[in-house]
Design a protein that fits this description.
The chain is an alpha+beta fold. It is built from two helices and four strands; from the N terminus they run ββββαα. The protein is elongated, with a radius of gyration of 16 Å. The chain starts with a strand and ends in a 5-residue tail after the last helix. The mean pLDDT is about 95.
Length: about 100
């Protein structure tokens, strides 16, 4: 999960985490298909053992699909952070 700048989804909640999954594809590939999801955050209050609250990934709030075209795919190389950054830019999400 990737922590992101909060995204308010009216009547759904506030997303604070982003996940992206490469969908099944045949090789050799020239394009890629992804499924992305946004999740809320759960804050577990501090207790006598923990000095600060604990933050965890919460409920799935929203998701969708993205298609990477041939030109974008050719730039991917071997660094998977390219695909994550590409998707976040397409969706206008910002990392924390």
């Amino acid at each position: 999960m990737i922590p992101i700048k909060p995204v308010i989804l009216p009547s759904v909640g506030t997303a604070k985490y982003f996940e992206i999954v490469l969908l099944n594809q045949s090789l050799p590939a020239k394009t890629a298909k992804f499924h992305w999801t946004l999740y809320s955050e759960i804050v577990i209050p501090a207790d006598e053992l923990d000095e600060q609250p604990t933050k965890k990934v919460g409920a799935l709030l929203f998701g969708g699909n993205l298609n990477m075209d041939e030109k974008e795919y050719a730039l991917w190389g071997t660094d998977d952070s390219y695909a994550v950054d590409w998707a976040m830019k397409k969706l206008n999400f910002k990392r924390l």
